[in-house]
């Protein structure tokens, strides 16, 4: 935050710590709970908390996307998937010891790797020195778009965004191929393959 | 949920405003937070709310399959087509500066077009995925 005094920074850190604590609690409950409805709702809560965290970090565009996609659409789609299956998770057949060790080791490696990275928000970090200053300085004159995020997303990084749209396009085609041919139950097929013909796979 | 009167009335009141907000996010993305991705999701959520309250079959009559599937391809084509148009006009692929006589106006127009393409594809894919999931009985 520009011009933030020490008290502001303390409050910001307090808010960040609270949000991260809530997120950790949500993840803990997701792991513990067996009711998948509750897990889906906790997933939505987690996304909303992440969106609030992005707002504190001044990344409003990312927060917007996270709130709309993570908390909104993902929750609805997961609920839709739950309506096709059971709403309780099965008890695991094996002890969670080996996965726990693998996760702990991977996490420790990642944290060890992050020790060499520039500290958070460091203006001297290489990523702030590469093309970002040019985007910020000449972005508005070259594109006439005041929101620099939109200018970078649609113009400077147009190829990346085209790729993202193609990913969404492909995902939509894939889901339509896998599920989209299902006709409503009111219109059964004439030539009988029986009831299990479509829903049986 | 067909007999929940309060839910039906509130949903009917909310849906136009959700759509209006989606359009605002789409076309105001140059000036404030937002853009095609967010706008597409918000616009699709209006259809999803309608389907949740009034049933998927009723919602399918509002947004038929051919319409949604056309939208999926149309948005991607609009994005790619903007790139092709800038190539035809003598620039690089997705170099919007050549779209108009003034490079800045060209950039602005190109950004508007590709964001619109993003919004159309995202909204259509979200609606299509929801209909595909919700239209299947167990």
How would you characterize this protein structure?
The complex is a heterodimer of chains A (201) and B (138). In chain A, α6 crosses α7. Chain A is 70% helix and 0% strand. With 201 residues, chain A is mainly alpha-helical. With 138 residues, chain B is mostly helical. In chain B, 76% of the residues lie in helices and 0% in strands. Chain B is built from 5 helices and no strands. Chain B has helices at 5-27, 36-54, 56-62, 65-88, 103-134. In chain B, α1 runs antiparallel to α2, α2 crosses α3 (56-62) and α4 (65-88) runs antiparallel to α5. The mean pLDDT of chain B is 88. Chains A and B meet through α3, α6, α7 and α8 of A and α2, α4 and α5 of B.
Number of strands of chain B: 0
Order of helices and strands of chain B: HHHHH
What is the straight-line distance between the termini of chain B?
Answer: 18 Å
Low-confidence stretches of chain A: 185-201
Mean pLDDT reading of chain A:
82
Quaternary organization = heterodimer
Specify the overall morphology of chain B: elongated
- How many strands, what sense, and barrel or not for the largest sheet of chain B? none
The number of strands of chain A is: 0
N-end to C-end Cα span of chain A: 54 Å
How would the blueprint of this fold be written?
The complex is a heterodimer of chains A (201) and B (138).
Chain A lengths: L5 H27 L3 H21 L3 H23 L14 H18 L11 H4 L2 H12 L4 H9 L1 H22 L16 H4 L2
Chain B lengths: L4 H23 L8 H19 L1 H7 L2 H24 L14 H32 L4
Which tags fit this structure?
heterodimer, A: 201 residues, mainly alpha, 9 helices, 70% helix, disordered C terminus, B: 138 residues, 76% helix
Give a brief rundown of this model:
With 201 residues, chain A is mostly helical. Chain A is 70% helix and 0% strand. Chain A is globular, with a radius of gyration of 23 Å.
């Amino acid at each position: 935050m520009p011009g933030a005094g020490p008290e502001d920074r303390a409050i910001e850190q307090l808010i960040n710590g609270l949000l991260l604590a809530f997120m950790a609690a949500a993840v803990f409950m997701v792991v513990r709970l067996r009711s998948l409805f509750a897990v889906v709702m906790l997933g939505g809560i987690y996304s909303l908390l992440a969106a609030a965290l992005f707002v504190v970090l001044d990344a409003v565009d990312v927060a917007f996307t996270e709130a709309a996609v993570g908390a909104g659409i993902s929750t609805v789609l997961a609920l839709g998937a739950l309506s096709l299956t059971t709403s309780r998770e099965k008890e695991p057949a094996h002890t969670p010891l080996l996965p726990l060790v693998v996760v702990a080791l991977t996490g420790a490696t990642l944290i060890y790797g992050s020790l060499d990275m520039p500290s958070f928000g460091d203006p001297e970090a290489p990523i702030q020195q590469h093309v970002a200053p040019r985007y910020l300085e000449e972005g508005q004159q070259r594109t006439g778009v005041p929101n620099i995020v939109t200018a970078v997303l649609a113009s400077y990084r147009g190829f990346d965004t085209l790729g993202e749209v193609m990913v969404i396009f492909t995902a939509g085609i894939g889901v339509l191929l896998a599920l989209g041919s299902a006709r409503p139950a009111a219109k059964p097929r004439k030539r009988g393959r029986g009831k299990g013909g479509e829903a049986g796979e | 949920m067909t007999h929940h009167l309060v839910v039906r009335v509130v949903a009917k009141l909310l849906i136009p405003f959700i759509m209006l907000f989606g359009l605002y996010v789409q076309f105001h993305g140059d000036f404030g937070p937002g853009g095609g991705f967010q706008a597409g999701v918000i616009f699709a959520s209006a259809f999803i709310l309608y389907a949740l309250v009034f049933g998927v079959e009723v919602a399918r009559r509002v947004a038929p399959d051919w319409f949604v599937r056309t939208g999926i391809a149309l948005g991607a084509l609009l994005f790619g087509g903007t790139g092709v148009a800038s190539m035809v006009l003598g620039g690089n692929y997705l170099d919007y500066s050549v779209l108009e006589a003034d490079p800045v106006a060209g950039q602005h127009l190109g950004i508007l077009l590709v964001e619109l393409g993003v919004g159309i594809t995202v909204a259509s894919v979200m609606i299509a995925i929801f209909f595909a999931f919700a239209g299947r009985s167990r």
